[in-house]
């Protein structure tokens, strides 16, 4: 027996978090780094939300809550899901409030997958899904989407990755890192596939509030035959700029949520009481800040996409949602995505994330977050343009 569990041996540290560490150490050395690596809104949480949580603290609202979450927050979530997403859930038995969407995904994966079960993940994808599957002892199966096909999910592709051990499929829309928003046609393909093979669907819809050009958000749980087989995960980090609050939720059929609840109760017990009060304020209060942030992301998107397409050898399709530009650097002549990222950091002082960090299909691309100011975006583009022209 070793000193530590073997369970973690094959699991890498989060590539995006490791990049953040590198940026911080470079900054400590005095290097001026422009950070387009992170996935964190640069806005502060709206005042009316913070005020409610502060008041809760002052009032001594500092005790454990029901493990499923505050009844008023679950009620607000159920109402939101019914109104905005076409999902009907009973707040008493079909919703759990979690400390982050990340934790909601983790408890969902733990509750749904047995060791050796397979979880289909269309890739490139957010870095943690595969690691979560590994932590559950399950096997992530990457269904590689093709850049040349606009990272589109097709029934045919999914069929090629199914086996008799396939238990679930995890879909993220709007997507990190590709910026794709699932079309109705794609949602139908996923839904029909899940129904036909009797699979669970775990739907990560954390970027729901950030979409462009009128792209419609489709919740998988609202598709025919999917309500009874889908766990919908969402949270407050991105749309409401509440990353540090750690607040999310999972909703789905009562018998599955009952299993998810066991994992939740034996790991965190419940989500912070005063944080949940802030969540109620976010969902039931004015939504102006959410809309304003989405408008600002749209302006930044135009800036970064135009700027990237003007760089020699770089091409970038406009993202349909979320706040990432996923640029094709295959023609830039600087090698792999990791080579390009290293070059950008060393030669231009710009931190971005190599697409290869997001699994199969990500190579040849780099992800640039535009959850940062227009000034930083402009400077980063200027520095990369100058460095690329020097390299040519
Ligand atoms: N899902 C995706 C696709 C994300 O990009 C992120 C955050 O980066 C999360 C989930 C986690 O969000 P939270 O802050 O609620 O844990």
UniProtKB/TrEMBL annotation:
UniProt key word Zinc-finger: no
Keyword Transferase in annotation: yes
Record-level Gene Ontology MF annotations: pyridoxal phosphate binding; transaminase activity
CDD domains hit by this protein: AAT_like
Protein name (database record): Aminotransferase
Family membership: Belongs to the class-I pyridoxal-phosphate-dependent aminotransferase family.
Required cofactor names: pyridoxal 5'-phosphate
Residue ranges constituting the Aminotransferase class I/classII large domain according to the UniProt record: 32-383
